[in-house]
Amino acid sequence: MKTIKIFSTLFIVTLSSCHNFLEENLQGTFSSATFYKSESDALVALTGVYSDVSFVNTMNQLWVFGDVASDDAVKGGLAGDQSDIQYIDQFNYVRTNTVLSNVWKYYYDGISRANYVLYYVPAIVMDATLKARILGEAKFLRAYFYFSLVNIYGEIPLKVLPPLSSSLINVPKSPVATIYAQIESDLADASKVLNNSYSGADVGRATKGAAFGLLAKARLYNQDWSGALAAIDSLEASATYTLVPVYKNNFLDSTQNNAESMFEIQHLSMQNPSLGSFLNQYFSPAAYNGYYFNAPVQDFIDEFEVTTGGVIDPRLDYTVGRAGNKWVNGEPFDPAWSSTGYLNRKHSQSKYDAPIVGNSGLDYVYMRYADILLMKAEAMNELNQGAQAVVSVNLVRKRARESYLYDTSLPGYGTVPTNLLPDVVYTDQPTLRAAIQHERRVELGFEFHRYFDLMRWGQQVAEAALGSSGFSWAKNRYFLIPQSELDTNPAITN
Questions:
Q1: Are 120 and 254 in a shared domain?
Q2: Model pTM greater than 0.70?
Q3: Domain that residue 113 falls in
Q4: Residue 270's pLDDT band (boundaries 50, 70, 90)?
Q5: How far apart are CA 395 and CA 375, in angstroms?
Q6: Is the same domain home to 173 and 209?
Q7: Is there a single domain that holds both residue 187 and residue 205?
Q8: H or E segment at 293?
Q9: Is the pLDDT confidence value at 14 over 50?
């Protein structure tokens, strides 16, 4: 139990790329008695934790829960391909479903790696400021893993020590509130020691703003509206975040890690071993050797506002490939590429930039400032501060419509179309609540948040959105813990 295998190979330093996270190549089995002795050991171990947030392999299927299980998408792909995704989509899965076990194992592996760092690094003689930052990053990442797991599975084992004995491996489930308490504690600790920003080889590390942002999100999910706003205030005091002028620049390799990005999971294409994102493989059309999964549905398309002159919210075509528009390679989009007639663009990279489809350089932007603004609006509205809440909503809408002033590829570039995405003016709580929920759906579409939003908004909203897929709040509020965990952990019986 006292050995740790480190096989992280992550984020190469290059002179020409904005993806500058340090690559560490270390292979073999190392005893905790001989590892964790130096500053270099601590950094290598931390890099191993970061590797478990990435999408460099097929294990990280967060998108299945965030998108496919929601009302935005269906599995897509060939009818019989990876049927376990289809079972999740239809809420008729069993505990042996591979998606359930993949995410469980991947994220708990990340937690275990973080726990090793937090257990052993304090004893290393090294620069005290760097040590504190490493521990803060490990706590942030542990909170990230637990936040995803608790929102997928509900009551789960809480492990805050490495697996040094059977009693630390076979841990019973803890209440959801206990998991959230640990998340908040880790993020509060992290926020005290993380840097406001990073540059060069450290771009992509968790920042103070990221810690406050995830803390705000955790509090929002628990309807602690005042606590969420306090965390956002601290976030905005920690660094200057802003909406980039063109919405799509959050999802292009050349313009990521920008002023809107708050926590961005780094990838780098064309490396050996692979450091690229596998999401491109999942979502690209078969014509480019993709699996064309996570296919947008018509209901999602219809959510986008259209002017009386027929001009649609530009975020739609930044998010979705559809007939009459160009695909990411510049060729006309063919609706026959998808079972729904649509494909997800945000994680699809041009074949000219990523010639190996499963090795994309696109990052996954987990948190960006637009999300924070909409969380701020939601919290204010729930506190009956509608007049202040609309300010944040309208900043997001303003950026979307003013893409016409900055994106030369848009038809009619240079002029905002008449009546496109007008400011929200109503401030009564129920109407504004619906407007904020709409805005989250179109602004954050296919960023793996939608299903979790539906769940936190409660039974009425969730069943209205998902009832046709077989969803029942009483039965499906949380996904079942995978059978593989029940088989190996006698402390859990259901």
A1: no
A2: yes
A3: 1-73+99-193+475-494
A4: confident
A5: 13
A6: no
A7: no
A8: strand 293-296
A9: no
